[in-house]
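ingest -> fold -> write
write: protein_1
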Amino acid sequence: MTSYAASSARADLSELRRLKSLLPPELRSWVTVEASPGVNPPLITSEEIGKDQVEVQIDLVKWEALALDQRNLMFWHEVARVQNDTIPKDGWEMAALAIGLGGAVGELWVQDGLLLLLALGLCGVSGWRLFKRNNGEKTLKDAVEADEKAIALATRFGYTLPNAYKSLGSALKILIEQSPKKAQRKKYELRLDALKKSAARAKSRVKGEAL
C-alpha cells in the first residue's frame, strides 16, 4: 500500500470514528457507521443488518466534498430517520408478494378456492406495504420530519439554530446541484423549501420570545 493510500485509509477511519461520536448516547449500542459497499452508492443511507441493529452507510468519496458542518447535519438527518423508525425493514414484502402470486397461479390451476383467497390476501397485504413504503408523499414527509429532528440534534450538540439551518440548507443545495436525476433533485428541492419555511417559523418564534 502506498503512503497516500495508507493516509487516505486512516483519514476514512478517523471520519467514521468522528461520526460515531456524534451519535446520541442512547443509540451507540445498536447503530454503527461504516463506509458504503458497492459501486456508486448514495451519499448516506441506513439499513437494518440484524435484529435491533442499524448500519449507517456513507460514500466517503462524495462525503469529502461537503464541509464539516454540512456533513454533521446530513449525518444527523440519517440519525433522525433511525429515531423516527423510518428505515426500510428487511424487505419481506417482496418475498411475500412473490409467494402470494405464485400461490394464486397454482391454486387457479388446482381450483382450490380457500387457498386462492389466502394467496390473494397475502398479495394484497404485501402489495399495500410496498405501496406505503414507496409512496412519494410519505417519503417526503418522513424526510422533512427527519430534517426537523436533525436541527434539534444539532442544537443538542452545541449548534445555534441559525447555524444548524444554514449548514443543512447549504448541504441540500450542493446535493441539488450534484444530482444528475431530475426526480432526485426535486426531492432535495422540496426538502430545502420545507427547511426554509421551518427556519422562518423558528426565527419568528425567537423574535416573539425576545419581545
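write: protein_2
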Amino acid sequence: MIPGKFSAVLLAAGRSTRMGRDKALLPAPDGRRMWERQRDVLHTAGAAEVFLSARPDQAWVRDTRGFAARLHDGLADGGPMVGITAALERTERSHVMVLAIDLPRMTPEWLAARAAACSPTAGVVARRGEFFEPLAAIYPRELRWLAWEVLARAEYSLQRLLAAAVAAGLMQAYALPDPEMPLFENWNERGAAPPVHA
C-alpha cells in the first residue's frame, strides 16, 4: 500500500504523427476531450495532484484546468520516459501514477487497484509475457535515480528501464489477465479513433 497520497502525470507530449492530429483533442467515448477524460481518471483513481506532460508548442495546453503543473518535454526524441522522469523529479510524494493520453478504455478502478498493490518503496506495472505496459502504471519516486542513469546514456526504452527496475526491486510486475487486456487498447493511427465532431 502506498503511504499517503500519490501524484500522477498525464503523458500528452507525443506528436501523433500516425494519427495525424493531436490525440489529446480527440473525443473520448463519453464525449469529453481525451485530455479531460484522462485527467479525471487520474483524479478519480486517487491522485492528490496531476501533472500534465506536454510540449511547449501544444497551444491547447494553455486552456487546460485541473492540473497541478505543466511539465514541458525537454528532449524531442526522448519519448514518454522524459515525461515520467520529469514527474518523478517534481513530486514530493512516494509514487507517481502514469497514464498515456491514448488509452481511452483505462479505468480509475484498475489504476486504483494497482496503486493499492504497491509497496512503500516499489511501484506496479502490468506485463503481458515479456512485454511491460509502462504507460498505465505506478512508479516509485526512487526510480528517478535509475531513469537518470539511462537518460544520461541516451537510452529511452521503457522496456529496458522496467526490466532493470523489476530486477532491482523498484517495480513489481502484474501479470495482466486476458479480460483486462482491452483496457490497454490505444489510438495510434487514422481510423482507430472516432471522428472529431464540429
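write: annotation protein_2
The longest strand covers residues 131-140.
Helices lie at 34-44, 80-90, 108-116, 143-152, 158-167.
pipeline exit 0
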